[in-house]
Write a structure and sequence with these properties.
Largest interface: A-B, 54 and 54 residues
Order of helices and strands of chain A: HHHEHEEHEEEEH
Membrane topology (chains A, B): Peripheral membrane protein
Strand content of chain A: 15-25%
Main location (chains A, B): membrane
Oligomer: homodimer
Strand order of the largest sheet of chain A: 1-2-3-5-6-7-4
InterPro entries (chains A, B): HotDog_dom_sf (IPR029069), THEM4/THEM5_acyl-CoA_thioest (IPR052365), Thioestr_dom (IPR006683)
Distance between the termini of chain A: 53 Å
Pfam family, one (chains A, B): 4HBT
CATH class of chain A: Alpha Beta
CATH architecture of chain A: Roll
Number of helices of chain A: 6
Protein name (chains A, B): Acyl-coenzyme A thioesterase THEM4
Number of domains of chain A: 1
Largest sheet of chain A: 7 strands, antiparallel
Radius of gyration of chain A: 18 Å
Shape of chain A: globular
CATH topology of chain A: Thiol Ester Dehydrase, Chain A
Chain lengths: ~250, ~250
């Protein structure tokens, strides 16, 4: 375990992640307090939100998370204590991700699901949690692909890799430019990702030119020894007026 | 309806699809006989396979398919009659897509699902059917994104678009080069795809250089008036020895 923590430290240090002290992680439980999904709400478990009638936050440990996933989660949670990194909550309806002031634009449909949260069984779909570092314009996602994401036998489908990269890099673009849409996503698939493994998706906004946000991303194994994928993306910043027009023209 | 059929005819004619006679489509049922998913098996309905203890073929009409989807399906089915186009069956376990002789390499896991068939409820996930034209090195996919594929409110997630493109273009690469893996996928997202709409994903192998297969793809509305996405891809042909080594190194 120490070797793995050391390897993780080295892998992340290469990308400039701060404060990774080997051995600080908890074991099989989420030891540290996580930032609340909503102000004032405790959220040490995934069920916390739903118990209080709030939307359930899925970016919290559950029984399907492997030891690697829990260790990484706890290490990132430690890094949130100084406020530089923040955990991003995750709900299964996109409207729960949108500020209250903007929700009036949309009618909430109960039959829709955010694509990444469309598979109910814990551990079968996208198990992931994202952490944001605003000052570095960076979002890191811890991702454990489940058995329902299969492409080649035993490995995650290229579309599921594209999906988690689009979401991670998109969250990074949103943190920089607010409401955005993907204009281009280009992915080099280097090594396949085994189902049930854990990978780090590390995205960064490289440049902003007017309404264009250019980003890049790497997907690596926890020990940093395997590069699974690299990606670049262009996102376009939308203002509310343009977004409404675009929506109207497509309906 | 005639206008739509005419628009479809024009849209597909631009891409060189043969024999689209306006008005030939059926209404709310799959009128024509479909090519059997397995030799000798009738497959006029999605349940045909499972009734005989075979894997269920999901690339057949179900109650969630819209009129646009059914019309398109029937038009493509008509085009299979001269043997130039073939419908590609679709199962929810990847091993059912692999020739018997290659299955010995893999252990069948009952808990895995092909990513695109991971959502059980009809109409909620990826509703699609692909048609192959071997002589044109081309695969066209009819795609109706369901309510569980949401990204921006009311629209298909960019990851779900990438997934159906990767699968369509991948099927095209397989038809040209056998066992392949995605090396690069680059997508330009032009206009968002409304949930429940129907789009055509039209892919083509442009060039083969050694083990490299270069492909391109367009995603358009049924009437051909809206370009939703364009993509290019590079797939690498794998031989069995290399594939086994790659699998072993990742496990």
């Amino acid at each position: 375990m120490w070797r793995r923590c050391g390897a993780l430290g080295r892998a992340l240090a290469l990308r400039g992640l701060p404060g990774l002290a080997p051995g600080a992680a908890g074991r099989r439980t989420a030891s540290g307090p996580s930032p609340p999904a909503r102000p004032g709400l405790p959220c040490g478990t995934a069920a916390a939100g739903s118990q209080l009638g709030q939307s359930k936050d899925y970016a919290l440990p559950n029984a399907s998370w492997s030891q690697d996933m829990l260790d990484l989660y706890n290490r990132f949670l430690d890094m949130t204590k100084d406020g530089l990194w923040k955990r991003i909550p995750s709900y299964n309806n996109i409207l729960d991700h949108i500020p209250e002031s903007m929700k009036l634009t949309y009618e909430k449909r109960k039959d829709t699901r955010l694509f990444l949260r469309s598979i109910d069984a814990e551990g079968a779909g996208f198990e992931y949690v994202m952490f944001l570092n605003t000052s570095e314009k960076r979002v890191v996602c811890l991702f454990q692909p489940g058995s329902y994401l299969e492409g080649h036998p035993g490995f995650a489908h290229g579309g599921s890799i594209a999906t988690i990269i689009d979401s991670t890099i998109g969250s990074c673009a949103i943190s920089v430019a607010g409401k955005v849409m993907t204009a281009n996503l280009s992915i080099d698939y280097v090594n396949p990702v085994p189902l049930g493994s854990v990978v780090l998706v590390d995205s960064k906004a490289d440049k902003v030119e007017g309404r264009k946000v250019f980003l890049s991303c790497k997907m690596q194994s926890v020990d940093g020894n395997t590069l699974h994928a690299e990606a670049t993306a262009l996102f376009i910043q939308l203002d509310a007026t343009k977004a409404q027009k675009q929506q109207a023209s497509c309906q």
